[in-house]
């Protein structure tokens, strides 16, 4: 039997109700009560139902969060092998491998490494990452905002990132990486002024880029990853763009007709960029400069009006391997800076 003052008992009961009703964590309830009564035991990181915060811990973040009545969750990190397993299917559910959903605001401010089954599902609100490294299994967004606000942050959804109607914004230099990129209507990729958002596609399928995804950018979009990217219709990229040395961008109209790839400011080609005419003219333009250290492949056809044009205020191809890949020696037309070093491959 333990004697407690009235105020101590009131505080204990309030703590008990907060944990039990609002944010059940498997094992945390018993640990919290035991700790309050001075009983020895190993407790997991404390979950605060009132503030929606899982504070930094010296051990891995583990357990199940019931998000039924929580509208904001902040994960501030933990040990290097942190595991965040969450569940939103109902009160006191404990099934492993669930996804974090129905939360208007998710804030990840500490490094999190997933055990291989955890994902985020977002239909509205926002997920803000201000940690150096967040590794989770999947991200499925049908709306809302994914905000990367820590300089140098790498957010890796190892299995897949399915983005439809999601605005991805890098307010600092940051990387969004995934094993399978699916990008749907209404999605936007934005780097704020003087910042770079790197998209790393590690899948075996190229991501199809369209103007709608790229029209609000004011910083630099860096396209990276071995999966590459494809452009099949006239595409305008606001801000600046770069192609990383491990990636490839292929631009070819799906049907006969003109195709233009236009970058508002600067374009740096450090990987490979292929521009191919398909019954209509093809052009690559940039508002300020085109340069880099990669490969630029141009392919025109012999059809009248099916030439390829490259233009910008400054076109410096001195560090770029430029290849003309038409299938015939006659009739294919190219409009290029006269000082460009050109190698022709037939």
List the keywords.
346 residues; mainly beta; 7-stranded parallel β-sheet; 3 helices; 41% strand; elongated
What do these coordinates show?
This protein is mainly beta and 346 residues long. It has helices at 6-22, 28-36, 211-214; strands at residues 53-54, 72-75, 99-100, 105-108, 112-113, 119-122, 126-129, 133-141, 145-148, 153-163, 167-170, 174-178, 181-183, 188-191, 196-201, 207-208, 220-224, 229-231, 235-237, 240-243, 248-252, 257-263, 267-269, 272-276, 279-292, 295-299, 308-315, 321-324, 334-335, 342-344. The protein has one domain (51-344). The strands form 3 sheets. The chain has a 16-stranded parallel beta sheet that branches. Residues 16-52, 54-69, 78-102 and 339-346 have low confidence and may be disordered. α1 (6-22) packs antiparallel against α2. The longest helix has 17 residues, at 6-22. The protein is elongated. The protein has 3 helices and 30 strands.
